[in-house]
Amino acid sequence: MFGSACPQQGGSIPDVLPFTIPVQTPNNTVSEDCLFVNVYAPTSAKPGDNLPVVFWIYGGAFETGDSSMYPGTAIVERSIELGEPVIFVSHNYRLNAFGFLASQEVVDAGQTNIGLRDQRFAMQWVQQHISAFGGDPTKVTIWGESAGAWSVGFHLLLNNGDNEGLFRAAIMESGSPYALRNYTAGQPFYDTLLNYTNCSSSADTLACLRHAPYEQLMAAVNATPNGFDYTGQNLAWQPRLDGDLFVRNPQRSMQMGLYAKVAILSGDCDDEGTLFSLGNTNITSDSEFLSYIHSNYIPSATDSAIVNVSKLYPDIPSEGSPFDTGDSNVLTAQYKRIAAFTGDWQFQAPRRLLLSTMSQTQDCWAYLFKRYKTTPYLGTYHSSDLTEFFSDIDFIGTDAIINFANRLNPNASPRLAPNVSYFSNVTWAQWDSNLSSPPLLEFLDPAPRLGFTPDTYRADAMAYLNTLSLQMP
After folding, report:
1. Of these four, 14, 54, 206, 422, which has the most CB atoms within 10 Å of its CB?
2. Which range of residues forms the domain containing residue 447?
3. Model confidence pLDDT, tens digit, residues 20-56
């Protein structure tokens, strides 16, 4: 039985494809009273067992999502089969305007980035109470996907990297720390809420919003862009630089060495940008592409820098995303180009920057998910890997999580009997084991096929994107 989901922003995938993409929604009621923690433990677990803990943070572009969508039963059951039992903990955190409201008024009240604070509070709850369920508070691995993975990355950086002993390992599934915008970028969306709730003329607009009818607030939230709109991953509701939790570009904090020194597992889907480019099908020319990436993603870049980006992501469909599909999947003239840029800017390039930085001090493993490449127009799209980690397709992803939580290493235990796990036949080397050709574990079709590929694809393009993102305020 789950508690209520937090308020969800409305939005749908643009109807531009000849098929329907399934979208998960919360399995329960929605309420502002939504901060719940769920604990999945082996039935035999008892205080003193000191089992490792997997702490899950759901995704959904900081707009939607709920812990009920990701039951931990299969992971716990599989961990018992492997002889490496874990406890799985999930929780809810506030979303959209309820969790990521940003404005001068919010900064003055000290109420910024509330959704991240919710997550941190849930981690503190685990530290205080997980031993009662048989868990070890010193053996917590935090794991998230999409916005959950971004969150994991940000938790590595909070307090200048002092994680207060809340976790000893981190897993980022499609998401790494990226260059945040200042809280002032959220002011227009705050003002939208004021207009919808008749709070604009109030002496204390934040207090007025707190007392506004829920229906009016949600109407205002739903009037702001969502992750499938034209603005794509330039999200209305997301973490912001606030002078408190974030005092500088998170990527610069990372380069300064101000991150938690824990074991890292990180990976992406091959075509991260396709799903978020379906709302850009009206962009059909080179000039429109240049204008879009400049205004929407890299506003601080010079005109010459944007021209350089356009050369690295050329108007050549065979070089676009879905990658390795030649001249097919050309939904519109600039679609594959926008998808390639978006996936690299928001996901792949930040991951590579994280690994190249943190592998200098930490054990790091990385993967690339390339299954379902034949999905028309989308390829291996963002979130298509979730079933690999939460179901019994082949247990490869699940086993990696369990192994990592137990031994800070995704490879199979040498004590494991043969033929129990596919990892018994694979040696997954650390990312920095070959600096000229860092290994990525590939998930390939058909399952359970695996491979390895060097993390060097689009090297010049991603290096340039990281140069630009590090220059952002």
Report:
1. 54
2. 37-179+243-284+339-468
3. 988 888 878 999 999 999 999 999 999 999 999 999 9
- Flag whether 459 is in a domain: yes
**Taking a C-beta distance cutoff of 8 angstroms, is the pair 368, 265 a contact?**
no
Joined together, the tokens standing for residue 230 give: 């034209």
Estimate the crossing angle of helix 214-222 against helix 187-197, to 10 degrees.
Answer: 140
Give domain status of residue 136, yes or no: yes
Output the six-digit token pair for 413.
């235990």
450 falls within a domain:
yes
pLDDT at 237 over 80: yes
Examine residue 226 and state whether it is found in any structural domain, yes or no: no
Output the CA–CA distances (angstroms, integers) from residue 63 to 180, 224, 333, in the order listed: 16, 11, 29
Report, as residue numbers or ranges, the catalytic residues.
146, 272, 382
Which CATH number characterizes residue 438's domain? 3.40.50.1820
What dihedral do alpha carbons 159, 165, 166, 172 form, nearest 10°?
Answer: 70
User: Hunting for tokens 């240049």 — which residue is that?
Assistant: 290
Amino acid (1-letter code) at residue 54 = V
Burial readout 370-396 (b: 16 or more C-beta within 10 A, e: otherwise): bbbbebebbbbbbbbbbebbbeeebbb
Strand partners, 140: 53
3-state secondary structure 222-245: HCCCCCCCCCCCCCCCCCCECCCC
Helix 396-407 / helix 73-81 crossing angle, nearest 10 deg: 70
Supply the mean pLDDT for the chain: 97
Residue 391 has pLDDT above 90, yes or no: no
Total domains in the chain come to 1
**Nearest of 231, 299, 243 to residue 63 by alpha carbon:** 231
Q: What is the pLDDT of residue 418?
A: 85
Alpha carbons 393 and 386: distance in angstroms, whole number: 11
